[in-house]
Amino acid sequence: AADCEVSREVSVRYDDQYRAPVLPQEGSICDGETVLLHSGLDGNTTVQWFYNDIVINGSEAPKLEVAEAGRYRAQVNYYEGCVLEATSGITVNAKPEITLPAHADICEGAEFSLEAVSTDHSYAWSHGAGGTDVFFESSGRYSLTASTPQGCTSKESIDVKIIPKKIFDENVQRNLSVCEGNSIVLKESGADRYRWYDGDHELINEEPSIEVREGKSDTYYLIGENTCFSDTVHYHIDLFADETMITSDTAVVEGSTITLRINGALEQLWSTSFTQSCVDCIQTDITPQIGGSVFVDYIDTNNCAREREIRIETIPLKDIIPPLVNVVTPNNDGSNDRLIFKGIEKFHSTALHIFDQNGNTVYQDLAYENDWDGYLADRLLPEGIYFYVVAFHLGSRVFEYDSSLTILQN
Question: Residue 345: helix, strand or coil by DSSP?
């Protein structure tokens, strides 16, 4: 009949050894990254993997690492024709591009702006700032991380050099002193260009340093420039004059002793080829036979190290010993009226002793001054031959001579 129905009871048994693979329906990764697809089956199960329905040869493990976009299928073939499978679609998202220079010189206080940016990307800097326009407080290496809405990130680094507004160090001492006769170097750093001016505003140098000698301007200023700013510093130089008193160049009779002295030094050291009495005293005695120099190195009251040369000239004895006189004519005619030894003013003192032919003293003076006129008391001595001894005193030296003396009245 048309409405006949037949029914039969069927027994169904579930066998849990036939497990199906399990995969996420969809997945995404960032370009250059991989994702691990795991079927959820144990290591004893053979899983055949397919990429866009093409068998992936050599891939029969329960898991598969993939890096390309497409459809991936895990299939398990059990006994008795039982085939179980699962499919997952993988999307590969592009990473954000960052256009960042390797190095940037940035003026202090200026903003750094990132070029070629995308409005749907987010940006984070390593020092905590965000966005494409950023300020840097100090020089250093900074990194930037860019992120897409899909979670893909890229990271680049930049070396930042902050060009400072203040080029020169404010802590440098620029009020300086120079010892008379010496020079001092003024030096700065940190600028790209330098211009030194003296107190008359004349440009004198365009190097990082200048050498200043005493006797010139005592005020200088420097203008320094970098790529962003300019800065100016001023120098004031005090000159320490030498106020030490030292024996000047002098002349001395050969073989005589002379004392050289220095006053106002903290310490001193004498050096010479002459024999001297002391090398580090404030005074030294020398007895030169010939001319030469004496040098003294000393530290003055301003702690300046200095040196002075004292030139010594020797005078030959023959040039200072007065010629002996053997005739006087005390007749008031203006010629030979007195016993005169020319040049005795060069000696400290002169002693004169005159006696007659019998050895009797007729005149004696220990400080003779060319003033004997042939008198004994108030009486003019008779004409005749007399004798005298004269001694010229020069320091500790005594030059003694004797001679005859004839007195003539006409």
Answer: helix
Angle made by CA atoms 104, 105, 107, in degrees to the nearest 5: 135
Specify the DSSP class assigned to residue 6: -
Judge contact between 375 and 352, C-beta under 8 A: no
Q: How many CB atoms lie within 10 A of CB 111?
A: 10
Count H helices and E strands in the chain, helices first. 0, 34
Mind listing the pLDDT tens digit for each residue in 242-293?
889 999 999 988 988 899 999 999 999 999 999 999 999 999 999 999 999 9
Whether this prediction's pTM lies above 0.70 is answered by no
- Percent of the chain scored above 70 by pLDDT? 97
By DSSP bridging, strand 230-240 and strand 219-225 are antiparallel
Q: Which amino acid is at 195?
A: R
295 backbone dihedrals φ, ψ, rounded to 5°: -110, 140
Q: What is residue 214's predicted lDDT score, i.e. its pLDDT?
A: 64
| Amino acid (one-letter) located at 149 | P
Tokens of 300: 């003055």
As a dihedral over the C-alpha atoms of residue 226, residue 227, residue 229, residue 234, rounded to 10 degrees, the angle is 20
Residue pair 35/29 in contact (Cβ under 8 Å)? The answer is yes
